Amino acid sequence: MTYKFTDLIYHKKKFLSDDECDLIISEYEQNQTEPINEKANHALTGEVVDSKFTKHEPRSGIWVDPITDEDTYVGCPAFNLIHKKVGDIVQEYQDYLDTFEAFHVGRYKFIRYPHTYRTLKYGVGGKIHPHIDHNEYTFASCTLNLNDDYTGGDFSFWFGKYKITLGKGDALIWPANGFIWVHEVEEITSGVRYATNCFIRDRPQAYPESINYNIRQLKEINNEYS
Fold this sequence. Notes:
By secondary structure, this protein is an alpha+beta fold.
């Protein structure tokens, strides 16, 4: 059987209910702090470019990560919901990859722990330029689309060579390791798009003990493998 790169992009429709999507959007809009922008390197030039969306991290209490000394916001309903649902889709993605009977067992270790939950808001003209999510700890990316009453905003890979239109509640997860997985969100032409995005890595985020991952051990694997 012949496989394509696009077969590794897993699109789950209606993964979140309408009420779950609305809860996350509502918490974003009720957040009293100033939303912020991000920067990312453009895939073709390497130039650092401002992203044309704003973001909040789902929040209530503040937890200082002892490794990075950064503030992390945990414990609010949106955080708890996102944390559980992304853990579920990671498990489902691994089950999907199992069906290929083709991939290295090490992926169970590296595509494992979700972290850095961000709710994003794209107004008219909002987009994110072609980029990658890979770093030394990130091996997959996940997006939860929270509404569909907008135009534009297709999720696009490889400079428009493969596009996905996401509905309300849809989940999208794909590999991020290496420099191949160039992707972008195309410009919003009307309405507002909301989405939650996070990254999947090989080690858990340093959250308080009350925050559990609840991701079952997929395979018993050795620490050393080839």
